[in-house]
Write a structure and sequence with these properties.
It contains 2 helices and 5 strands. It has 92 residues and is of the alpha+beta class.
Amino acid sequence: MTSIDIKHAHSLPKAKARKAVEEVARKLSERFGFDYEWDEDDTLHFTRSGVDGRIALEPKELHVSAKLGFLLSALKGPIELEIRRVLDERFK
């Protein structure tokens, strides 16, 4: 199983950061077909067949982690690049 592990600093207030994370999830969902939902700890979980991941919203940092199944491990590069691109776009 292949992993993605990205830490991204931010300086947004919690409400704005949460909205930006939601926008990131929406972009990923459009591009890769992920389903997503928030839990009670400000962690957004995203899944689809062969992917299980989360975006943990912390006061000064986001932590994106995901496990990719065998078939999607070949797409690790494009998935990781898209996550980084959208994070850079939403968390300037």
